[in-house]
Every structure is written in C-alpha cells, then in structure tokens.
Amino acid sequence: MEEKNNEIRKEILEQIKTGKVKLRSKYIFLAEKLGLGSSFVLSVLLSVLFFNLLLFYLKSADALVYLSFGKRGILAFLESFPYLLIVVFILFVVVSGFIISKTDFSYKKSFSFIALGLIMFVIFSGIMATYTNISEEIDKRIKQNHPIGGMFRPFMNGAIMMKDRGIAGRLVEVDKDNIVLETPHGLEVVNIRDCANCVKDLKEGSFVVAIGERDKAGVFKVYDLKEVGMDNMGMIKDRTMERFGYWECRKTSSSTLCEDMENKKECVRGCLEERLTFEECRERCPE
Fold first, then answer.
1. Do 67 and 84 belong together in one domain?
2. C-alpha dist (Å) from residue 168 to 4, 56, 186
3. Which of 152, 257, 260, 284 has the most crowded Cβ, counting Cβ within 10 A?
4. What number of other Cβ atoms are within 10 A of residue 183's Cβ?
C-alpha cells in the first residue's frame, strides 16, 4: 500500500514538473467561491425583483382587465402582456440555477430538487415583496425620469403605450357616435357606434377600459366597454392624472387639494429644469 502511495505521489510530482498539473493558490479558490456566491445572491435578488415588478404590472396595468371581457378580450390581453418582464425574470432564474450547479451544494442534492426549491423561494419572496413599496418607488422614479427609473422604463412601458385592440382612460366627453378619453399618451376620440349602450350609465370623469379595433386612420372602434374600479389600473390612472390633472380640480378650482397638486407639479418641473437629483428634489418637494 505504501509503495502504491509513493508511486502515485511520484506520478503527481512528475506531472507538476512537466506542467500537466498546475498548482493554484488557495486564495484563487477563495476568490472563485466568493465570486460564485456573490453572483448567485445577485441573480436571486434580481429574480425576486423582476417577479415583484411582474405582479405590480399585472395589478396596475390594463392587461388583466381585458380578460374580464371573455374571449373577445384575449387579443387585447396578449397585446398588453409584459413579455419582456417575463423573459428577464426567467433569464435570472436560469442564471441562478446555473451558478448553483457549479457549487459544492449541487453534488449533495439533485438538480431538480434545487431548481424546485429556487423557484419556490423566488415566487414566495416576490409575493412577500408586494407588502413593501419597492415597485411603487421604481414606478415613481420612472415618472420622474430618474436614472434608476430609466433602467426599468422599457419593462413597464407596455402598460401605457397605444394599443390596437384595447384602450383605457378617463371619460371626458360623450356624444352620439363618439367619446373622448384622456389617456397617458394624450386625448383619444373613440368611436362607439357599434356599442352605443356601453356608455349609457357612465359619468364624465370615470375611468373606463374598452376592447375593439383601431382602423387604418387610427380611430379606435369599440366593441365593448366597462367602468374600472378605483383599485385597478393604478399606473394608467396616475399617468393620466399627471398629464391632465385631477378631475375634481375642473369642478372646484379653489380646492386646497388641487392647489397643492399644482404647486407640487410646478416644484417638480423646477427640479427637472435645474437637473436636481431625486433626493434633492424630494427635499424641495415633500410628499
């Protein structure tokens, strides 16, 4: 046995001398472990963040509302669905799984067990993160053109872009064949000739969502329309009110709330003109 060990030792030394086997410092191994560990933690945190943003998008945009129209709302739902968020979320989960497969832990458990545990952890953590205001803060920075918000804008723009199969906004005018909606991207004249009874019980100032089709001239023709509750489409409502103001301000121009909102908007415009940081603007224009 001892002779065999000596032979193995000599063989290893010979391979080291010839360069077939290279010795590596323990600090290199330590650095690799730290690098893998840091990359894994970062990828998991980003997976949780993007899953949380996905939940926020589905709650605050108009995508899920279109499903309430049944089969006719599927195309509008697919048009509004946050594909980029889904792709990036899956990408970070895959990266997390790949990194952990390169660690010692992967040899102790089966990869299917690790993958299932990782997915459950990300989903649970993302749901728990909905009890924080992290997504709201990111959305706020997007609206304020903050550099951090700019990084996330491509993932959230689907909620407010002009669509061909669905439309959402605030009802401001009704006549026989058309209604006028205030939307995040501007005023829209919407044709309701095929859905005249849709707006019979609606009041001006209410938020509505409609399914239909945009013609070659760019006019949206409504097939069905319904009013939206106050808890739905938060992103669309916020951006519409930011662009056109509060509906109550048109009825009661002396309202303290309206005056405060206008003062704050002027303050934020000043911050943007002076190129102040988000923190400086927050100090100047308190909530």
1. yes
2. 80, 18, 11
3. 152
4. 20
**Do 207 and 227 form a contact (C-beta atoms < 8 A)?**
yes
If one counts every other C-beta atom within 10 angstroms of the C-beta of residue 252, the result is 11
Q: Would you say how long the chain is, in residues? A: 287
- CB-based contact 234:168 (threshold 8 Å): no
Domain hosting residue 281, numbered range: 245-287
Q: Give the CA radius of gyration of the chain.
A: 28
Burial (CB < 10 A; 0-12, 13-18, 19+), residue 111, is exposed
Same domain, 133 and 50: yes
CATH at 186: 2.40.50.200
> Which two structure tokens, joined as six digits, stand for 234?
């938060």
Give residue-wise pLDDT tens across range 87-117.
999 999 999 888 888 776 666 677 788 888 8
One domain for residues 178 and 233? yes
Comparing CA positions, the residue from 110, 117, 125, 82 lying closest to residue 96 is: 117
| Domain total in the chain | 3
This prediction's pTM: 0.75
Q: Indicate if 93 and 128 belong to the same structural domain.
A: yes
Q: Looking at 61-201, list the stretches that DSSP marks H as alpha helix, in order from N- to C-terminal side.
A: 63-67, 74-80, 83-101, 111-128, 134-143, 147-156
Q: Is 223 found in the same domain as 198? A: yes
- Start-to-end C-alpha separation, the chain: 78
Are 110 and 71 contacting, i.e. CB atoms less than 8 angstroms apart?
Answer: no
